[in-house]
Design a protein that fits this description.
Strand content: 5-15%
Largest sheet: 18 strands, parallel
Number of helices: 32
C-alpha cells in the first residue's frame, strides 16, 4: 500500500511543477527543492516492492515504511493546503476587485502563502534525507529482494504450513460431490489434446481439498498411467520446483538432480511423459510466469493427458489454456455450512449430525458469521469441539468470532492476506476502499468507479477513458477472487458487487494500519477516531455523532455517510462540518437531510465527488462553478429544480445526475465541460441550450432528457446524430414522438440502451432499426400494434421492459426464432392484454420473466412450456383466475422453472 501512497505524492509534486501556481513555485529554490523531493521519492519507491508482506516480520522495515508513508502524506497535505488557500484567495480577490476595493492585503497574504509553502517543502526535504540515510544505516536492502531474516522466517513458516499433499481427510469434506463429478468427467472425457483444468476461487474455499478428491478418485487413478502432485505456492522458486517435478517423474535423487542442467532435466521429463497419459496437479499457482516456465515439461501428444490447476487468479487459468473453461468454486450454502460445522463441533458423535436444542440458535448464528467459507467453519467448529457445550460458552465465541478467526493457530487471516499481498500496488487502495462500506452491502459499481476516480486511484491509459480503466480494476479484483459479483448488467458488465465479511475485515485491518481509513460506528463513538490522522472516514452511526468529536481531523480526504436514518442537521452544524474538512476530495451525504448548502462549501476546492442523492436539497449555491476539479455531482432525489448555466464552465465535470432539473440561462459560447459523459434526468422545458450546445458534448455516453416537446424534435435530432459516443438514451415527455423521429432514435449505431416514456406514433419496420440495441424500455407508449412483431427481430436484444400502458392491444405473439438472445422480459400493467402466445422455438435464451399487474391476462400464456431456459418467474398483482390456472390445469406449463415467486 505504501507504494500507492508514494505514487500519489509523486503525482502531486508533478502537478505542482506543471501547473506552477504562480510565483511560489517558479522561485528557483522552491522549484529545485520540489524537484529534488520528487526524484528522491521515485528512488525510494523502487525499494518498496512487496513492502506489505516484508514488514510483517521485520520491525526495521515496518518502521522505515511507516516513515515513508507519513512523509508522503505530508507532501500531499502541504500541496493540497497551498492549492486550497491559493484558490479561495483568488475567488475572494475576484469579488474584491469587482467592488473596487484595494487588494494590498491580498498581496501580503500571497507572499505569506509562498513563504509557508517553501518552509514546508524544506522541512519535508530534511525528513526524506533522514529516511534515505536510515535505510543504509539500518541495513534495509531492496524490500522486494528478499527482506530481513524475520520476514523470511515468518513467510517460510506459513509456506510450510500451507504445503499440500495428495492425502485427504474426508472428515472435512462437505458439498463437493457435484464439483468432483464435473471435474472427474472433464478429466476423463474424449478430448485428446492435453488440457489444463483450473479450479478457481477465494482462499479458504477448499480448492486444494477438491483437487485432492479428484486426484484420489478411483476412476482417475485407473485412467491415467502416471499421476503427480506438485505444490507451487506464492513464493515460486523455479529451479526448486523443477527438481521436485523431475524427482517424481524420473525417480532421481536430489543430489544427482542438482548436478544436471535445466535443459537436460526438461528434456528428460518431457521424454518420459510423452510415453504416458498423465495427470499433473499444480496446486496454488499465483503467476502466469509459472506456467510459462513449466509448460515445456508437459507435452501434448494427443493422448488425453491433463494438468489440474488450483489458483485464486482467473487470469492465470485463462493464460494457461484459453480454450478450457475455469471451474469456479462457490461458497457453501446454509445446509452444507451447517453440516460441516456440526461434523467439526461434535467430532465424537454419530453420523446423525444433530445439535442440542439449547445450542440450535447459536449454531445458526455462528455458521452465518462464517459466510459459507469452509476454512472459517472448520476453524470455529474445531474451536468449539474443545469447549463445553453450553449456551454461555458458545455465546462468548459468537461475540468474539472475528477475534477468534484473526488469532487462530491455522492462520486464516494470513492465508487470506496472501491475496492482498499479491496485488499490484495500483489495486491495493481499490481493495482497501471496500472497508469503507457497511457489512453485507451490495455496492453499486457505477458509484464505486466514480469514487475511485475521485480518490485518484485510477489513471488514464492511452486513449482509454478513466471510467473504463476503473472497471478493469474491479474486474481484476474479481478475477483474483477478492471481490464477488452480485449482479450483472444487460451488457455483461458488473452492476453490483460485494465483499466477503472476512476479506472486509482484512481490508479494514490493513487500512487502519496504514492510516487509510477509519470507521465511526456505535462501537467507537466514545473514542477519538479522528486523532489518528486517517485519510478517510466512513460514518456508519450519524453525522451528528461525528460533530461531537472534539478534535476533527483536518487530514480527511473523503467522508462517506451510511447513516441508517435520515438525519437532519442545523445550518451551523453543516457550517462546522465543511469548515473542518477543507481538503476533501470526496463528500457523499446520501440521504442526509439538507435543504441549503452553507456558503463555506465553496472552500472545498479539491472536491471531485459530491453526492447529495436523496438529501432533499432545494437549491445549489451560486458558487458551484468554483469547483473546477469536480468530476461527479449527484443530486438525484433532491428538490433542485434549477441549475445555473455556469455548470458548462466546470472543466472537470464528467458525470451530472439531476432530478428533472432545468439548466437556466443563456449558454456560453465556449463550453468548458467537454469531458461530460453523463447528463441524466435534465429537464428541457422552456430551455434553449439544446441547439448549439448539446452537439458539442461529444463525449456523452448517457443522456436522460425529461420534458420532450415535439417543437424540439428537429434540434434534438440534429444533436443526436453528432453524439457518436452515446450509448444510453432516456427520453421522457408528454407529446407523441412521430415515426420519423423514432426511426432516427432507433437507428443510432452507438446506442445500445433506449428508454422511451411517452406516446409513440408507430414503431418502424425491423430493418429500419440498428442491430446493436441490447436493452429497450417502453413506457406510456400507447401502441396498438403488436410490439413483439417488430422487436423480436432484433438480433442482440437482451432486455425488454414493456411498462405501464406501453401496449394497449389485446394480443401478443412471440413467433418461432423470435428474440434469439433475450435474457430478461418484463410486462407490467398492460391493462388490455388478454392473450399471449409463445411458439415453440421463441425466446430460446430467456432466463428471467416478470409479469406484473396485467389484470386481463387470465390464463398462463399458450406455449409457456417451450421456454426451456427460463430460470426465474415473478408473478406480481395478477388476477385470481391466473393464479388458479397456475395451480391447476396450467401447472404443467411451469413445472420446469426452478424458481417461481408469486405475490
Amino acid at each position: 500500500m505504501v507504494e500507492a501512497v508514494v505514487a500519489l505524492a509523486v503525482e502531486k509534486l508533478g502537478g505542482l511543477l506543471i501547473e506552477g501556481f504562480g510565483y511560489a513555485v517558479r522561485r528557483s529554490h522552491v522549484q529545485s527543492e520540489v524537484e529534488w523531493i520528487q526524484r528522491e521519492l521515485i528512488r525510494i519507491k523502487c525499494f518498496l516492492k512487496d513492502a506489505d508482506v516484508k514488514q510483517k516480520g521485520d520491525d526495521r522495515v515496518k518502521n522505515w515504511v511507516r516513515d515513508i508513508r507519513d512523509v508522503s502524506y505530508q507532501v500531499e497535505d502541504a500541496i493540497d493546503t497551498f492549492i486550497m488557500i491559493k484558490s479561495t484567495s483568488l475567488s475572494r480577490r475576484a469579488g474584491i476587485i469587482k467592488r473596487y476595493v484595494c487588494c494590498f492585503s491580498f498581496l501580503l497574504n500571497e507572499f505569506a502563502l509562498q513563504h509557508k509553502l517553501g518552509r514546508d517543502i524544506r522541512r519535508i526535504k530534511v525528513k526524506i534525507s533522514d529516511i534515505s540515510a536510515s535505510r543504509i544505516t539500518y541495513g534495509i536492502e531492496n524490500i522486494g529482494g528478499g527482506g530481513g531474516e524475520g520476514s523470511s522466517y515468518v513467510f517460510e513458516k506459513l509456506r510450510e504450513r500451507r504445503r499440500s499433499s495428495p492425502r485427504i481427510d474426508d472428515h472435512d469434506v462437505i458439498g463437493f460431490d457435484e464439483d468432483m463429478n464435473l471435474l472427474v468427467a472433464r478429466s476423463l472425457d474424449q478430448e485428446k489434446h492435453r488440457c489444463v483444468i483450473s479450479i478457481v476461487g477465494m482462499g479458504g474455499l477448499g480448492k486444494t481439498t477438491l483437487a485432492k478428491k479428484v486426484y484420489n478418485s478411483t476412476s482417475v487413478t485407473r485412467h491415467f498411467d502416471f499421476c503427480a502432485w506438485v505444490y507451487v505456492s506464492q513464493d515460486y522458486r523455479g529451479r526448486e520446483l523443477l527438481h521436485e517435478i523431475a524427482g517424481k517423474i524420473l525417480r532421481i535423487e536430489k543430489g544427482k538432480l542438482s548436478m544436471m542442467s535445466r535443459e537436460h532435466l526438461e528434456e528428460r521429463v518431457s521424454k518420459v511423459l510423452k510415453k504416458k497419459r498423465y495427470l499433473i496437479v499444480l496446486d496454488d499457482i499465483w503467476e502466469t510466469e509459472v506456467w510459462d516456465d513449466l509448460k515445456t515439461l508437459f507435452p501434448d501428444v494427443m493422448n488425453g493427458s491433463r494438468v489440474l490447476f488450483t489458483t485464486r487468479n482467473r487470469d492465470v487459468a485463462i493464460h494457461a489454456d484459453p480454450k478450457s473453461s475455469t471451474h469456479d468454486l462457490h461458497f457453501l450454502n446454509q445446509t452444507q455450512s451447517r453440516e460441516l460445522f456440526l461434523k467439526k463441533a461434535f467430532p465424537m458423535e454419530d453420523n446423525s449430525l444433530t445439535c442440542p436444542p439449547e445450542l440450535e440458535t447459536l449454531a445458526t448464528q455462528i455458521v452465518a458469521k462464517c459466510g459459507g467459507l469452509p476454512l472459517a467453519i472448520v476453524i470455529i467448529g474445531g474451536l468449539l469441539s474443545r469447549k463445553k457445550k453450553t449456551p454461555n460458552v458458545w455465546l462468548r465465541v459468537l461475540q468474539s468470532i472475528r477475534w477468534q478467526l484473526n488469532n487462530d493457530p491455522g492462520q486464516l487471516m494470513e492465508i487470506l492476506a496472501l491475496s492482498y499481498n499479491d496485488l499490484p500496488f495500483y489495486l491495493k487502495p481499490c481493495f482497501l476502499y471496500f472497508g469503507l462500506f457497511p457489512e453485507d452491502l451490495e455496492i453499486p459499481v457505477g458509484k464505486l468507479v466514480l469514487l475511485w476516480m475521485a480518490e485518484g486511484f485510477v489513471q488514464q491509459r492511452g486513449e482509454e477513458s478513466i471510467e473504463d480503466v476503473a472497471e478493469d480494476f474491479l474486474e481484476e479484483l474479481v478475477d483474483r477472487s477478492m471481490i464477488q459479483v452480485a449482479e450483472k448488467r444487460y451488457n455483461g458488465k458488473i452492476k453490483t458487487c460485494r465483499i466477503h465479511d472476512l476479506l472486509r475485515d482484512l481490508a479494514m485491518s490493513e487500512a487502519k494500519e496504514c492510516k487509510f481509513l477509519e470507521i465511526l460506528d456505535s462501537t467507537n463513538i466514545d473514542t477519538s477516531v479522528t486523532t489518528r490522522a486517517a485519510r478517510r472516514i466512513s460514518v456508519h452511526s450519524s453525522l451528528e455523532e461525528y460533530l461531537k468529536l472534539r478534535h476533527p481531523n483536518p487530514h480527511f480526504r473523503s467522508m462517506l455517510s451510511f447513516s441508517r436514518v435520515q438525519e437532519s442537521l442545523w445550518r451551523d452544524q453543516w457550517k462546522l462540518l465543511f469548515m473542518s474538512l477543507k481538503l476533501l476530495r470526496v463528500l457523499d451525504l446520501e440521504r442526509a437531510q439538507i435543504q441549503v448548502l452553507p456558503k463555506e462549501i465553496r472552500e472545498l476546492v479539491h472536491l471531485r465527488y459530491l453526492g447529495l442523492k436523496g438529501t432533499g436539497l432545494q437549491r445549489l449555491p451560486s458558487s458551484i462553478n468554483y469547483f473546477s476539479n469536480l468530476q461527479t455531482l449527484d443530486i438525484r432525489g433532491s428538490k433542485v429544480s434549477r441549475f445555473s448555466v455556469q455548470l458548462w464552465e466546470m472543466p472537470g465535470l464528467r458525470h451530472l445526475y439531476l432530478e428533472k432539473t432545468s439548466i437556466v440561462g443563456h449558454p456560453p459560447v465556449h463550453v468548458s465541460a467537454m469531458h461530460l459523459q453523463t447528463l441524466s434526468r435534465v429537464s428541457i422545458y422552456g430551455n434553449d441550450w439544446i441547439l448549439g450546445l448539446l452537439e458539442k458534448l461529444t463525449n456523452l455516453r448517457k443522456l436522460g432528457i425529461h420534458g420532450y416537446y415535439a417543437s424540439q424534435t428537429e434540434a434534438l435530432s440534429r444533436c443526436l446524430v453528432k453524439l457518436s459516443n452515446l450509448q444510453n438514451l432516456e427520453l421522457k415527455g408528454t407529446e407523441p414522438i412521430l415515426e420519423p423521429t423514432m426511426k432516427l432514435l432507433l437507428n443510432q449505431p452507438s446506442i445500445d440502451k433506449l428508454h422511451l416514456s411517452g406516446p409513440l406514433e408507430k414503431l418502424p419496420h425491423p430493418q429500419e432499426i440498428q442491430p446493436n440495441l441490447t436493452k429497450i424500455i417502453l413506457e406510456e407508449s400507447r401502441l396498438m400494434q403488436d410490439i413483439f412483431v417488430t422487436l423480436e427481430k432484433l438480433p442482440n436484444l437482451k432486455i425488454l421492459k414493456l411498462l405501464a400502458n406501453s401496449f394497449l392491444g389485446e394480443k401478443m405473439t412471440c413467433s418461432v426464432s423470435g428474440f434469439p438472445k433475450l435474457h430478461g422480459l418484463e410486462l407490467s400493467f398492460l391493462d388490455n392484454l388478454e392473450e399471449w402466445r409463445v411458439d415453440d422455438g421463441a425466446m430460446p435464451s430467456l432466463q428471467n420473466l416478470i409479469i406484473n399487474g396485467c389484470d386481463q391476462l387470465k390464463k398462463v400464456p399458450a406455449g409457456f412450456q417451450y421456454l426451456r431456459a427460463l430460470r426465474e418467474l415473478f408473478l406480481f398483482n395478477m388476477p385470481g383466475e391466473f393464479e388458479a390456472w397456475i395451480n391447476g390445469e396450467d401447472s404443467y406449463k411451469i413445472q420446469h422453472i426452478p424458481s417461481i415467486v408469486m405475490r
